[in-house]
Amino acid sequence: MAIIILGIESSCDDTSAALINERKILANVIANQEVHKNYGGVVPELASRAHQQNIIPVVELAIRKAKIQKKDINAIAFTAGPGLLGSLLVGTSFSKAFALALKIPILEVNHMHAHILSHFIEKNDQDQFPDFPFLCLTVSGGHTQIVLVKSHYNFEIIGQTIDDAAGEAFDKAAKIMGLPYPGGPLIDKYAQQGDINKFTFPHPNIPNLDFSFSGLKTSILYFLRDKLKHDNNFIRKNIYDLCASIQHTIVEILMEKLRTASQKTGVKQIAIAGGVSANSGLRKAIYEEEKKRGWQVFIPPFEYCTDNAAMIAVAGYYKYLKKDFSAQDVTPFTRY
Question: 161: which DSSP letter?
Fold first, then answer.
């Protein structure tokens, strides 16, 4: 018997709805919010208003694309957190109301767990999935973690950022250089035409498997401030090399900790997830390590790297199998 899960994702500025039959995607629809480009970053109040406008059309389109009817849905999985409170409230409230109307259960999903479980989305018959345990480097605008994944339900954080996330470091560096929001993808694009060794930025000396990116952001700011004193066009003249050097530094900081984590745990099944897992420099670096160290690497397709409801639906599917349903009084949470 088919198990059809509707997934709802509204943690930040993307409104997404997906339908899966067990782990196979029937539809995955995402509505982006262009308004934030005018402000150089996500404005929480504008994000929640846009979610209210988008959520019903997005769900309706997903149901049409999946070629099912509402009565075919067995449960609704939704992002409970972490994320922006106003945005999460829209997805949570919609999921509760829709589930009540259909008389079906709801499943609260941790956004970061869902990024990890995106590796179990079925796309075709040749899919390969990680075996347990595996290490997952989850990197996004809000989080940077190394997680030891012991099962679909058992996640142990063995390293995380003590301040800023890697994705934020990309976006803030881009902002300092005057690039439009979101700056991370632009740095990646320009880096492919630059010299990674042209400029050198410091690596933080953080103990154990934890990360820090606040110092790197500061060093980039001061470096550019000093260069601009002597040449107002320094950034424009060196934009490709700057992007390549900054990206290389961030990727190396991530890879140093991931290599150490693999050595300490003895785990060679390595995955990456989250928005920054779409970065070409990080993907290239992890594939190079795969060849050197005998790792088996897993990277989700681009459409499942950024925030999407397919990963929420898959995470919900595993909770559905355990009958780990949520009550109607569930509330969203903003922090991990």
Answer: B
The model's pLDDT over 174-230, given as tens digits with 9 standing for 90+, comes to 999 999 988 999 999 999 999 999 999 999 999 999 999 999 999 999 999 999 999
CATH number for the domain formed by residue range(s) 4-121+306-321: 3.30.420.40
Q: What is the pTM for the complete model shown?
A: 0.94
- Match domain 134-300 to its CATH number in 3.30.420.40, 3.40.50.11270, 1.10.10.10, 2.115.10.20: 3.30.420.40
pLDDT tens column, 17-31? 999 999 999 999 999
8 A C-beta contact, residue 223 and residue 201:
yes
Alpha carbons within 13 A on the beta-carbon side of 245: 18
CATH 3.30.420.40 residue ranges in the chain? 4-121+306-321, 134-300
Tell me the per-residue pLDDT of 284-301, one tens digit each, with 9 for 90 and over: 999 999 999 999 999 999
- Looking only at the bridges linking them, the beta strands covering 296-298 and 269-273 are parallel
Q: How far apart are the C-alpha atoms of 212 and 221, rounded to whole Å?
A: 16
In the numeric block, the tokens 């952001």 are attached to: 217
